[in-house]
Write a structure and sequence with these properties.
The chain is α/β, with parallel strands linked by helices. 33% of the residues lie in helices and 16% in strands.
Amino acid sequence: MLLVRRKYVNHPIAAFWIKGSWVYPPHWDDYPGEEATHWKRHAKDSGRRKNVDVAMRVYGKPYQTAVTMASLFKHSGEHIDKIYVQEEIEQPHGDDVSWILDYFSNRSIIRYRTEYFLGCGRSEPERLPEQGYRHSIRYQYAWENTDKRFLFIMHNDCLFEADIVGGMLERLADEVFAGVGMIGQCWNCPAGFAQLCDGGRYENFKPDYKEVLALIRDYPSPRTTAKEIDAEAPVPLPECRLNEFACLVNVGMLRQHVVPEGDVVPFGMMGLDIGTEWFKSLTLRGYRFLNWHQGFTHSPFSSRSNGHDADSSQDEYTSSEDKAKEFLKENYPSVYHDLRGVLAS
């Protein structure tokens, strides 16, 4: 075993002195098998340069948050330095997420509590000069404060099953693309209904204004209407965006253009949806985004295949949290038992 000696910190998580530095696994037992291999690998990688920060908004879902963070650290932890966690001042169904973040305090977590709860309503661009308002927009505090070139943006209801961050870094290395992730909400888009466009083809889909209006007429959409279309720049279409579920953005390349340094609205600003205005503005300036998102599942515990319904449905919320808890118990037993200890303390 590589474990030489241990010390205890303020909560029930141990640290091991390995090759000259303290390494913090999530359980104080000397466990064999896959988990031990995982933590040995992280000890080996601890000297590598961690060139990615993470931005995550936490709105409820403590057990899903635990699965998200544990699986991300397991597969991509070697790339990650700081995790910026935006804690909303309001939480759904009276739930508490702070204890989950306390548990993961062995990581470099920057916790930021918003001044305003903006929810899913459209953002107010006239208030962007107001720092408290701007930092209440999803991911914006991380965007303005990261000292890394790359920012990994994610939801707190994901399951990572491979090194998605490493894969994304490789695809942004030559700086042909400014961001990588799942492109488009094609399930809401007239062009998707017509099978004319998707995340991998959006750059080649170039209809004119009249063609877009005809498409909307022939393939009605729940959100894309004629009034949403710019006659001078009809594409990208309104549902086109770099989805925030799990994406990597080259902040170093784009920061000069985005508020507060530039005039492009923040990534997390709500227009038709999160990131739609940001994506269109940067695309029209010539920046490119790659459709690649292997190695993760969004909302794996939702019976409705989305995370939004749980915000308003107590039954859906409880069901998805129960499933996440069982998944954690079966697949990350050390994390699960430590969390139970935190709750009992």
